Amino acid sequence: xxxxEPEGRRRPAAERSPTTAAPRDxxxxxxxxxxxxxxxxxxxxxxxxETMSDVIREAIxxxxxxHDTQKEGGRILVERDGKVRELVNF
Length: 90
Description:
Helices cover 38% and strands 11% of the residues.
């Protein structure tokens, strides 16, 4: 089970995107993480000022978008240091 977030960590609903807003039909899921994955999730949540649940929802939305884009024949390109590379496996 994910740890409870400290009071005040969650952004107001008006500041959250529709993909990260808590849905009305909420389903609870228990997830086991390695220590490294948990630490990464915790760090992302702290740095972004979001809850761990928000970070996970955003990650799922990003995975869905990448999957759908590639499935429809699209390509995901990443530019870094003037070099463009295609994201193939995500």
